[in-house]
Amino acid sequence: MTFLADPVDSVDSLLREMLAHGFRFVHPTGAAGEIVAVVGVRLHHDVVDVVCLRGEGEAKAARMPSDEPDVLAPTRTIWQQTGRADLVLAALLALPDEPDRHANGHEMVFAGASGDRNAN
């Protein structure tokens, strides 16, 4: 029988890997001073990668063009995923550093912010 790694340990390891890849993190707080989310951002190769964690079971990540005016509520994304934190962080880290903007000879199509995946 195969056992899955503890999601908390996985999230911790993945966050450390994200730091090693240049992500910078902030932790917005609520009125009572409680942390309401952990937000990581990395700018590279004319794109911005953003991840927002609200708990082990609630994470959202996106890659968007670097000229996107609001990285916390983008109107254009190249890729995005929501779900369990360990799965979302692993998927974001698995993306190539240099996005292929001409996949299959065509300009990449930007999915709207409500989509769940990218369009190539």
How many H/I helices? 2
Instruction: Report the biggest beta sheet as strand number plus sense, adding barrel if it closes.
Output: 5 strands, antiparallel
Task: Please state the CA-atom Rg, rounded to the nearest Å.
Answer: 15 Å
Q: What percent strand?
A: 25-35%
Number of DSSP E strands: 5
Secondary-structure element order, as H and E? HEEEEEH
Overall mean pLDDT stands at: 81
Fold topology:
Layout: H1 7-20, E1 24-26, E2 38-44, E3 47-55, E4 58-65, E5 79-83, H2 85-94
Note down, in words, how this protein is organized.
By secondary structure, the protein is α+β, with helices and mostly antiparallel strands. 20% of the residues lie in helices and 27% in strands. The protein has a 5-stranded antiparallel beta sheet, covered by helices on one side. Strand 3 and strand 4 form a beta hairpin. Helix 1 (7-20) packs parallel to helix 2. The radius of gyration is 15 Å and the shape is globular. Mean pLDDT is 81; it is low at 103-120.
